[in-house]
Predict the structure.
Amino acid sequence: MSVFLGACRREPVPYTPIWIMRQAGRYLPEYRELRARVDFVTLTRTPELAAEVTLQPLRRYPLDAAILFSDIMTPLQGMGVPLVFEPGPIVSQPIRTDAQVDRLPALQPSDHVPFVLESIRLIRRSMPRDLPLIGFAGAPFTLMCYLVGGKPSKEFAAARSMLYAQPDTARRLLDKLADAMAAYLRAQAQAGAQALMLFESWAGLLGPAEFRTFELRAVRRVFEALRPLDVPLIYYANQGATLLEDIAGLPIDVAGIDWRMPLDRARAMLGPRIGVQGNLDPAALFAPPEMLERQVGEVLRSAGDAPGHIFNLGHGIWPETSPDAVARLIDNVHAQSSR
Ligand code: CP3
């Protein structure tokens, strides 16, 4: 049994497992080298290359889990939504009307994303048996931000105003995305993903009432569809501190916590049934070694002794991060937490 999966199930483990959001990516010279020759979409659509990039950080570091190399927008691209990455996702015909929502097809994993399922099978064949692979998808509201807005933004005004100006259209879109992501994640688990994570990168844009009215039901719909699978479920809501009371009611195993919310407070709100994943500030990787060690200690202390902590950053690793700092982080977490 893997340490990561044990921690997800809130079982006692010999040390705190760690993986890093965006661990496969631009801070790694070997990723940049490959990326200089191959564009991002080709990487995500070619199973041999997606598997190679997934495994790159595992060759370098004693990480406790792999995460599939893909993007939250990849399944939508597979469903026929015209989009490009520059480097963030750009949707050429943003979705604004009921008719456009209705034209989105239901996701058929083996037709729309066969390359993702093949990547997962390939990764599982190439990985050590005790190292688990995390599958993932974007949460409905976060996908909606890009689909309605058409491009990366700080405010996502088009998506947020849709909640007020066209609430029925927004709900229709969120429900459709929820069903698509449930089918997508189920197919990932069937192909071999051993834990499933939903990324809610833009949770911080929603007040608790908007979250409850629109997104909570869509997220619940995804997780309820997946609960019958024997796979840990993780929900990461970036800047979601004010949403944790609602998140505590979801049928999930682990909540991802960003660095703004101390883990002891998150645990108090989530209760003993849900584990926590996080939450070192990505900026802390720029600290001198002794300072980084202290920061790691702080996160471990805040997580406490109860089972159910997976170490991670509070959000994705920055491309400017030194690969040596990542090595120190992982060694530190393992050394300071070993019981
Ligand atoms: O290692 C991993 O975590 C797996 C790979 C992964 C990517 N995207 C690869 C990627 C994962 C899990 C994602 C999820 C993702 N994509 C999220 C949710 C997580 C988060 O960080 O909040 C979001 C919001 C996106 C949308 C997206 N895709 C953006 C904003 C960008 C551009 C800038 C950026 O953050 O990297 C992308 C493109 C993208 N996705 C890249 C990578 C490695 C860069 C593409 C390149 O190499 O040019």
